[in-house]
From TrEMBL:
Domain of life: Bacteria
GO molecular function, one term: oxidoreductase activity
Name of the molecule in the record: DUF2236 domain-containing protein
Source species of the chain: Chryseobacterium flavum
All copies of domain ER-bound oxygenase mpaB/mpaB'/Rubber oxygenase catalytic, residue ranges: 153-349
PANTHER family from the UniProt entry: ER-BOUND OXYGENASE MPAB_MPAB'_RUBBER OXYGENASE CATALYTIC DOMAIN-CONTAINING PROTEIN, SECRETED PROTEIN-RELATED
InterPro entries: Lcp-like (IPR037473), MPAB/Lcp_cat_dom (IPR018713)
Native organism taxonomy: Bacteria, Pseudomonadati, Bacteroidota, Flavobacteriia, Flavobacteriales
Length: 397
């Protein structure tokens, strides 16, 4: 954490265009943020900060036995908890005592409101995650380096999307983050996967450029990722014609603040509201260069996922789904970003997103909030089941 950084891209055109005329400008208007570099030195050291507690557990548990045995052991700790009397490695005690301590700021009513907005927004939630949060994140070249180092492209976009969906759905249901609940378990497992990946990268990937890329899966990059799940997600829902109450909005930030806490992100990096989130995000983007060739490969892998995915039986259905995702990507992201990522040009690309906006406004008036939450939960669970059936119960790669 001792390295001193400068906002190295603050004069670059990609940074200026995003914040002066693109989605960044919209985020400032949406949030009322007052962006500046006044707090840069407070945040930049986290580019070289990692989750040491998680890394120690990986070193002491995962690297001393077979992977499936270590995973079973960790699952036992998650589902049964740890006490002072338990004879377990010290690193495990340290980690789980932190996880089991419920922070004073946690508000279960806000967690509920955040979960309800995620469910109520139905498939728009999944479109937002995929066509704005995920693919938009590929424009930040350094952020993607751990994916390249761990050879995520070889695993394929269907598998990556399935894992992201599995995590997101399971942490955004009712009571999902209660101790020993499924979302709580997913958050802890994800934290240790990050630590495992980080230690593996440091050990095996000799080309890792710490000076420029930061530590692999560092705390500042983690903050930006979870701002994607909150601020960027909300902005996308708004763009697609969804409305949300002040309590739902606050709930989204609260939900992801607690998920971030469970994942080991330092609390001072976890925003409470859209104003803070935008101001934090502004600082982080100043150290990220625009898309590189790896970004383009990741983006096209995600775009072509619709063609590879056998959930839809016929080829024409898959091609149409890819077309619809491309339309949403152009609608949700800046044109400049889409061109950098080489998103294909398609005809009538505004037709589907504009139709969604009209539909959402009508649907909002005709259908009760309770019914929309129930229907959204049902539809999202069906999409998740379809993905899991493909990636877990077959030889699909």
């Amino acid at each position: 954490m001792e390295r001193i950084m400068i906002p190295r891209f603050k004069e670059a055109s990609h940074f200026k265009n995003f914040w002066e005329s693109g989605n960044g400008k919209q985020l400032i208007e949406f949030s009322g943020a007052e962006v500046s570099f006044n707090n840069f030195e407070q945040f930049c050291p986290f580019f070289y900060h990692i989750d040491e507690a998680g890394d120690e557990v990986v070193k002491e548990v995962y690297f001393t036995r077979k992977f499936h045995e270590a995973s079973r052991e960790i699952e036992h700790y998650i589902r049964n908890g740890i006490s002072e009397k338990d004879e377990v490695p010290e690193s495990v005690k340290k980690l789980f005592f932190q996880l089991q301590k419920v922070p004073d700021w946690l508000d279960h009513n806000l967690l509920k409101s955040g979960a309800e907005l995620c469910m109520r927004s139905n498939l728009d939630s999944l479109i937002s995650l995929r066509d704005y949060c995920l693919i938009g994140g590929y424009d930040y070249a350094y952020l993607n380096k751990p994916l390249i180092a761990t050879e995520a492209l070889k695993k394929g976009a269907v598998k990556r999307l399935s894992e992201t969906l599995d995590f997101w759905v399971n942490v955004t249901r009712y009571n999902a983050l209660d101790r020993h609940a499924k979302g709580y378990e997913f958050a802890i497992k994800t934290r240790l996967i990050h630590s495992y990946a980080r230690r593996s990268i440091k050990k095996h990937y000799k080309e890792w450029d710490t000076e420029n890329w930061g530590e692999p899966i560092n705390s500042w990059d983690m903050m930006a990722t979870y701002i994607g799940f909150s601020l960027v997600f909300l902005h996308s829902l708004k763009k697609l014609g969804n409305t949300f109450s002040p309590e739902e909005e606050q709930g989204i930030f609260h939900l992801w603040k607690y998920v971030g806490y469970l994942l080991g992100i330092p609390e001072q990096l976890l925003p409470d509201n859209k104003k803070q989130a935008t101001e934090y995000f502004y600082l982080w983007t100043s150290i990220q260069p625009p898309s590189d060739k790896d970004s383009v490969l990741l983006a096209h892998s995600l775009l072509n996922e619709s063609l590879e995915n056998p959930i839809l039986k016929f080829e024409f259905q898959r091609k149409n789904l890819r077309y619809l995702h491309i339309c949403c990507t152009w609608f949700l992201l800046d044109d400049e970003v889409c061109k950098r990522l080489h998103i294909p040009e398609v005809p009538n690309r505004k037709l589907f997103p504009v139709s969604k906006i009209i539909f959402n406004k009508i649907y909002d008036k005709l259908v009760s909030r309770k019914t929309r939450i129930q229907r959204g939960n049902k539809d999202q669970m069906k999409v998740l089941r379809d993905y899991l059936n493909i990636t877990k119960n077959s030889n699909f790669h």
